[in-house]
Amino acid sequence: MARVEQRVENLYYTIELNSDERDRVEQIVLATLRQQQAVNDERLAEITEETETNQTKLVDAYYADSIGRELFLTHQRRLNAVQCP
After folding, report:
1. pLDDT per residue over 16-59, tens digit each?
2. Total structural domains in the chain?
3. Using an 8 Å Cβ cutoff, are 62 and 72 in contact?
4. Beta-carbon count within 10 A of 52 CB
5. Is 24 part of any domain?
6. What pTM was estimated for this model as a whole?
7. What are the Cα distances from residue 78, in Å, to 2, 3, 15, 83?
8. What is the pLDDT of residue 85?
9. Which residues constitute the domain of residue 65?
10. How many CA atoms are closer than 13 Å to the CA of 17, on its beta-carbon side?
11. Is residue 11 part of a domain?
12. In angstroms, rounded to a whole number, what is the distance separating the alpha carbons of residues 80 and 76?
């Protein structure tokens, strides 16, 4: 098995891309990365908004004496962990 893997590895050293092929691969990779970054940015915005909403609700509940200090602190730490992993 090791010989087969070594032969495959050696074969990869023989593969070359011309300039046009390299540019095309680069364009595809960059487009994919940009698309993924847009998805990540959108998800981060959703998580940030959700966390801020939950923090506001948590503070409101605490000041309305709906939850105790320990429960408040527990949830506050959880929200902080989500916001700053």
Report:
1. 889 999 999 999 999 999 999 999 999 999 999 999 999 999 99
2. 1
3. yes
4. 12
5. yes
6. 0.64
7. 48, 51, 50, 9
8. 61
9. 19-83
10. 8
11. no
12. 6
